[in-house]
Amino acid sequence: MKSKKFASGVFMLILVLMLSAWTSSSKQNNSDNTIITDQNKIKISQMHSGSGEVPKGLKEAKNPAYKVGSQVIVNADHMKGMYGAKAVIKGAYDTTAYVVTYKPTTGGPLVTHHKWVIQEEIKNAGTTILKPGTEVTLEANHMKGMMGAKGTINSAVYTTVYMIDYIPTTGGPIVKNHKWVIESELSAE
């Protein structure tokens, strides 16, 4: 039991050091996008990492189950290496989250049942929850070809959505500011 707590503490200390190093290296205009900690270089993922900016009008959650800075386990498999990953909460917001199917603006195959796009990332969505089958234009930029894509709502849920930083279980770079996971896809570490 003590060894699990120790290992967990060491992991979080390393994660904090890496995030601190990334922040200070970003301020110094680090051109190779690496974190240097304990004499190791960890490349920051450019493919799925986000800016940390949130859509206009998005409201912070008043009483989220997981507060900003909390350490959690991800129980979602939106991407390879996500399920079972250790993560840190970067933001918590109350909104409607949608599963959508869309055709990327860059071409390629239809993306089916993408999780999650939120109310504030859908053009002219207003405040009413959109019904399955509603055709929409996406204003999310989570993936290449998503911004401006035409899509269809598959399902909706009003919930707390979280932005997270996580270390993929498959190894590789830290994924920064991943948008979005919902409350039911997380558990306490």
Helix proportion range: 10-25%
Q: Quick one: overall form? A: globular
CATH architecture of the largest domain: Roll
Largest sheet: 8 strands, antiparallel
Beta content comes to 35-45%
Mean of residue pLDDT values: 81
Q: Mind telling me the C-alpha Rg?
A: 17 Å
Record field, number of beta strands: 10
Q: Which superfamily, in CATH terms, is the homologous superfamily of the largest domain?
A: Domain of unknown function DUF1541
Instruction: Detail the poorly predicted runs.
Output: 10-48
Q: What's the N-to-C terminus distance?
A: 14 Å
Number of helices: 1
* Secondary structural class: mainly beta
SSE inventory with pairings:
Elements: H1 2-27, E1 34-37, E2 40-43, E3 59-60, E4 71-74, E5 86-103, E6 111-118, E7 135-137, E8 150-167, E9 175-182, E10 186-188
Antiparallel strand pairs: 1-2, 3-5, 4-5, 4-10, 5-6, 5-8, 7-8, 8-9
Please provide a written account of the structure.
The chain is mostly beta strands and 189 residues long. The chain has two domains: 1-44; 50-188, Domain of unknown function DUF1541 (SH3 type barrels), CATH 2.30.30.1210. It has one helix and ten strands, in the order H-E-E-E-E-E-E-E-E-E-E. It has one helix at residues 2-27, and strands at 34-37, 40-43, 59-60, 71-74, 86-103, 111-118, 135-137, 150-167, 175-182, 186-188. Strands 3, 4, 5, 6, 7, 8, 9 and 10 form an eight-stranded antiparallel β-sheet that branches. Strands 1-2 form a two-stranded antiparallel sheet. Mean pLDDT is 81; it is low at 10-48.
